[in-house]
């Protein structure tokens, strides 16, 4: 059953990127992140009430709560970097870098969770790394713009924090009902996101968000909530080294929608890179 939840997480994560990109054309990325986090938080706690797991709050140990908070901080940092990257660059360049977090996640799972790295996983990691490199290459003779360079840096930071999120989240939800654990960490993300909005002086911009973009931001929050609920349920029942690769297949959903919505087309080299990333991910599931 956890495999189905992992694939569900991948689908909703793929949709999230497209909806978010539509919602940050004129809206500041930090403001958008803060708004969508409200939606994610509400959705998470609604699920807690529905499944009746709120009573488990009293049973959460200090150690588990610490890891949930750390996971929430890592998630918040990842989201802030990711949506800033999406605002500055093309989806087809940002998403591959963000999804490359799987490489660091597997290594961290090996070091801290003692999850072994098989030959197939090692081959998969190499393929994903090579595929990511191909996808972010510029067209022949085309200079890399300043904004694009910043987008790639933010995407790389997002990948690092995303890998930390997976490891900390895996430890934090041991012994805790997955919906409750997700809701708690989303509360941390909410606080972090709004603190960033306040510190950067962007609070007044919340009221100026265009209605159309606000709708996309909220839909992005719903998709994110669905993705994380599925993701943490899968992490609770399955190994992180398998759940994470499945979740990263969301890149296929994102690339497909970006071609339809934003008319972003892959070059031959980028297409080969996408093929390597997909093949490498599938090999890791063997």
UniProtKB/TrEMBL annotation:
SUPFAM superfamilies the UniProt entry points to: Multidrug resistance efflux transporter EmrE
Domain EamA: 1-136, 150-285
Membrane-spanning residues: 6-24, 31-54, 60-82, 94-113, 151-171, 183-201, 213-234, 240-262
Signal peptide span: none
Pfam families: EamA (PF00892)
Keyword Acyltransferase: no
Alphabetized UniProt keyword annotations: Membrane, Transmembrane, Transmembrane helix
UniProt KW Transmembrane helix keyword: yes
GO cellular component entries: membrane
Family membership: Belongs to the EamA transporter family.
Protein name, UniProt field: EamA family transporter
Organism taxonomic ancestry: Bacteria, Bacillati, Bacillota, Clostridia, Eubacteriales
């Amino acid at each position: 059953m956890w495999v189905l939840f992992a694939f569900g997480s991948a689908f909703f994560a793929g949709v999230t990127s497209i909806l978010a990109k539509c919602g940050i054309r004129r809206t500041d990325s930090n403001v958008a992140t803060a708004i969508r986090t409200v939606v994610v938080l509400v959705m998470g706690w609604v699920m807690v009430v529905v499944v009746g797991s709120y009573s488990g709050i009293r049973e959460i140990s200090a150690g588990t709560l610490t890891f949930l908070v750390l996971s929430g901080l890592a998630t918040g940092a990842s989201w802030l970097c990711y949506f800033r990257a999406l605002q500055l660059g093309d989806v087809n360049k940002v998403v591959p870098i963000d999804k490359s977090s799987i490489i660091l996640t597997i290594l961290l799972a090996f070091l801290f969770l003692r999850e072994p790295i098989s030959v197939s996983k090692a081959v998969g990691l190499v393929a994903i790394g090579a595929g990511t490199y191909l996808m972010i290459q510029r067209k022949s003779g085309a200079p890399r713009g300043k904004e694009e360079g910043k987008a790639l840096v933010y995407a790389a930071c997002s990948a690092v924090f995303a890998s930390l999120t997976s490891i900390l989240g895996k430890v934090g939800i041991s012994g805790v009902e997955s919906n409750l654990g997700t809701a708690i960490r989303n509360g941390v993300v909410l606080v972090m996101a709004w603190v960033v909005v306040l510190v950067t002086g962007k609070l007044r911009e919340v009221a100026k968000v265009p209605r159309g973009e606000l709708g996309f931001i909220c839909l992005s929050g719903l998709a994110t909530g669905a993705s994380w609920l599925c993701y943490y349920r899968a992490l609770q029942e399955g190994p992180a080294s398998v759940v994470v690769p499945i979740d990263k297949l969301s890149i296929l959903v994102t690339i497909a929608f970006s071609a339809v919505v934003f008319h972003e087309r892959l070059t031959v080299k980028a297409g080969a890179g996408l093929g390597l990333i997909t093949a490498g991910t599938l090999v890791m599931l063997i």
